[in-house]
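Box 4.2: Ligand-aware structure prediction
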Amino acid sequence: MSPTYDVIVIGLGGMGSAAAHHLSARGARVLGLEKFGPVHNRGSSHGGSRITRQSYFEDPAYVPLLLRSYELYEELERATGREIATLCGGVMVGRPDSRTVSGSLLSAEQWDLPHEMLDASEIRRRFPTLTPKDDEVALFEARAGLVRPENTVAAHLQLATRQGADLHFEEPMTRWEPYRDGVRVHTAENTYTAAHLVICPGAWAPQLLTDLGVPFTIERQVMYWFQPRGGVQPFLPENHPIYIWEDAAGVQAYGFPSIDGPELGAKVAFFRKGVVTTPETIDRTVHEDEVQAMADHMSRHIPDLPGAFLKAATCMYSNTADEHFVIARHPAHPESVTVACGFSGHGFKFVPVVGEIVADLALTGTTDHPIGLFDPHRLAAAPA
Ligand SMILES: Cc1cc2nc3c(=O)[nH]c(=O)nc-3n(C[C@H](O)[C@H](O)[C@H](O)COP(=O)(O)OP(=O)(O)OC[C@H]3O[C@@H](n4cnc5c(N)ncnc54)[C@H](O)[C@@H]3O)c2cc1C
């Protein structure tokens, strides 16, 4: 007979691991199925660091979710003893009318978030590694910083296991179908049934959610680590903020303080300059011209950063057309399936609150969190 669960979670990356934790914490009998091993580097939740911030230029509607996410990140650290968040402060830099600056200010003002506006000379005085142009400003947020993706996923898996969830790795779902009042899920090894299915597919959304009716674009992204000229001291988290820097052409680059010791430099990347790919065909080799383009770009903003090139890694964004998430009961299977996908390159800071929302939706069909922005109906492909 098929093993039976209350909820089966597909994908135990960032979002799925958090969902497995929140569901099992509420007493649900949970099975988690993951295509790869625990805390792997083949999806979207690896690379050592992710920016977190509250003055959210993407849309002020994200702010209440961020406030809750910060609380849950703290709980996660307390419950597991793992180091996850480093709130070293952050600057959103650009011209005053850039989306990065004006959007961050809009959220800060609308939600009364603590922040400071810095002109170019104040940026240079406070953060001597940064060399803004005279017409650039920054919104500084003391509660911005970074979270560690691998530690976050490991912590959620640890808690889910402790709470009785069955987590199966290297066991991808091959297909599923409606079954009685719930679902039946197939893998190469077994067949499982459950009252409800949660799908957190990351970059595999185009394959796993064909009937969602939402187009996704999977983008290859590259993260670069450089050894700063003169060493990491000025780049340590006690001296250096995270940053997102939008130039006059609208190109955004972002980076982190040095968090992994003097040999490992500091990480930097472009935000949204990827090429379209798939999880099967992604080019995992980072080419010399890409490294050079990143170094040239950063030398205009943080000249000491691109010293020796240390390493690079690839990762994938799963973009929706408007770069907002999709979190909902599945429109075609509203009784039995919840989806969390399309995190469009800015989802990690929300991982714990997404776990909470998904648990609400899976177990009760609704949530008190404001998720109107993430309704898949807004993106439904027009009929051919
Ligand atoms: C380079 C880069 C930088 C980023 N920077 C930031 C940042 O600074 N701040 C921020 O907030 N966000 C950032 N993001 C975005 C954030 O990391 C992602 O939004 C988040 O990690 C997505 O999590 P996920 O659970 O959707 O995907 P994943 O963590 O990839 O999880 C999906 C999982 O589904 C599994 N899976 C797929 N198919 C199956 C199947 N058939 N059966 C079972 N399992 C399956 C996969 O193996 C995978 O483990 C960044 C992303 C990238 C790539």
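In the box above, the bound molecule is flavin-adenine dinucleotide. The mean pLDDT is 97.
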